Amino acid sequence: MSENEANRGIAHLRANEGKPLWVVDDLITLKARSADTDGTFALLEERTPPQGGPPPHIHHQEEEALYVLEGELESLVDERTIRASAGSFFYVPRGTLHTFKNVGTSPSRVLGVISPAGLEKFFEEVGEPATEGASAPEGPPDVEKLIATARKWRRRQRSAT
After folding, report:
1. Full residue range of the structural domain in which residue 143 is found
2. pLDDT tens per residue, range 118-133
């Protein structure tokens, strides 16, 4: 075994482990972060209530792959609408406008892979820590905070390239 192999860490989480965060009404659990994967990718699980989902957005530095574990989603990727149910997969190249909405009657669960890693730090900045069994924060989301953080995040990305 090479020295590099001997120094590589192995990441392992059991079911229900990770760092859970409320991002608006979505419960995002960070399963693997940049430090866990040498910056290669981030892995997260996203639980979205019925009629919920992220606003349309573009990742300028990251690729995103989404695998639907539970629920019924309607996804917009560029100008294409994709209907996705449990077992469905889709890949979103960087620079592509995308979003999804839970069109089912129960919460959806999506496994997301973002490459390279780093975007999980945005979720940590805008999210609120979640505790087991707690529901989403009450009241409207702090849209101004989300927008300001997204702008700040975008400037960081531009300066890194």
Report:
1. 16-160
2. 999 999 998 989 987 7
Q: What is the DSSP string of the chain?
A: --HHHHH-------TT-SEEEEETTEEEEEEE-HHHHTTS-EEEEEEE-TT--PPSB--SS-EEEEEEEESEEEEEETTEEEEEETT-EEEE-TT--EEEEE-SSS-EEEEEEEESS-THHHHHHH-EE--TTPPPPSS---HHHHHHHHHHHHHHHHHH-
| Domain count across the chain | 1
What is the pLDDT averaged over residues 89-109? 96
Contact call for residues 30 and 19 (beta carbons, < 8 A): yes
Instruction: Give the residues across from 23 on adjacent strands.
Output: 26
5 is a domain residue: no
Residue 123 burial by CB count (10 A; 0-12/13-18/19+): exposed, middle or buried?
buried
Q: The whole model's pTM is what?
A: 0.84
Q: CA angle 135-44-65, nearest 5°?
A: 130
What is the per-residue pLDDT for 123?
92
